[in-house]
Amino acid sequence: MAVDKPAGADTAHAPAQPGKWRLGGALWLLGMPGVVAVVWALLPTLKVNEALLPLPLEAVLLLSGLQTAVLLALAVALGVWLAPRVGLRAPAVSSWVAGQPAGPALRAQLVPGLCGGVAGAAWLWLLSRLAPAALQPSDPANAMPLAVKLLYGGITEELLMRWGVMTLLLWLGWRLLQRGHGQPGKGLVALAVLLSSVLFAVGHLPAAQAMAGVLTMPVVAFVLVGNTVFGLLAGGLFARHGLEAAIIAHVLAHLLASRCSEGACQGFLVTGM
User: Fold this and answer.
1) Among residues 28, 126, 140, 148, which is most buried (max CB within 10 A)?
2) Alpha helices, DSSP H, located in 52-179
3) Are 37 and 148 contacting, i.e. CB atoms less than 8 angstroms apart?
4) In angstroms, how far is CA 34 from the centroid of its own chain?
5) CA nearest neighbour of 92 among 7, 160, 150, 192
6) In whole angstroms, what is the distance from residue 78 CA to residue 196 CA?
7) pLDDT tens track for 60-118
């Protein structure tokens, strides 16, 4: 069976098909504040270790930002070209760049996104009670800034992992297993959600290692399970309702969990990519 169409995606609320370049540009710009935020968050640490850097501080910051910006552009391009072929979409952004009101498409994703955000925040809260001691920062000042969680974690990561990676995995499965016929079946969609969630989790291991120093089995298990479950939530929202629903959920989860003082709230749904 085909991917469920996002609520409001047909009839009068169906987003027009915008030019690929315009849609890609809009999505790339949507994700760039997160890139700037995460590079800015690196500045204090890099300043402390400036003498150990192989290049001048400004060059390291520039190269770090460029690397992430290029990865973002690649993920956006993959989604723009492949998502329409497998029934995935960003309805509100597509409507906006096509000159149509984005409100109807966004409102259709608001309730699922809000519900997903509350569920995600509850999952964060639960994990904060179970976090290994190694993932709890000794100095609260070292906690990831909220702006990075909201902009990079909530928006940029969704563009990278759901719009880019999940779309690519679904397209590959559709081409290999269905020979590109019809729409991807539910099982194929579920598999793409699962695989992209696991990759999302694996991508957070470097951040966990930076916090813990050593990737012990409890730390690895905690990071993989925590992020995979959240990835399943976000991927399901993307497949069923649209990209904006996943973004709303991810941003809201971080926002609601921002008062947590435990390391888990900043130790796994963070800048692992």
Assistant:
1) 148
2) 57-82, 91-97, 103-130, 146-148, 157, 167-177
3) yes
4) 11
5) 7
6) 14
7) 889 999 999 999 999 999 999 999 999 999 999 999 999 999 999 999 999 999 999 99
d(CA 107, CA 88): 18
**Token pair of 77 as six digits:** 């391009």
Beta carbons of 86 and 196 less than 8 angstroms apart: no
DSSP 171-222: HHHHHHHSTT-SS--HHHHHHHHHHHHHHHHHTTHHHHHHHHSS--HHHHHH
Amino acid at position 169, single letter: L
Q: What angle do CA 259, 131, 147 make, to 5 degrees?
A: 35
Query: Which string of b and e fits 132-171 if b means at least 16 CB within 10 Å?
Result: bebbbeeeeeebbebebbbbbbbbbbbbbbbbbbbbbbbb
Condensed to tens digits (0 to 9), the pLDDT of residues 136-154 reads 766 555 667 889 999 999 9
Residue 213 and residue 74: Cα distance in Å, rounded? 31
Counting Cβ atoms within 10 Å, is residue 248 exposed (0-12), middle (13-18) or buried (19+)?
Answer: buried
Among 258, 255, 259, 236, residue whose Cα is nearest residue 246: 236
Residue 4 DSSP SS3: coil
Contact call for residues 94 and 231 (beta carbons, < 8 A): no
Amino acid at 221: A
The pTM score is: 0.87
Two tokens at 205?
Answer: 């291991």
Contact at 8 Å (CB) between 32 and 135? Answer: no
Domain segments of the chain: what residues? 11-267
Backbone angles phi, psi at 11, to 5 degrees: 50, -135
**Cα 48 → chain centroid:** 29
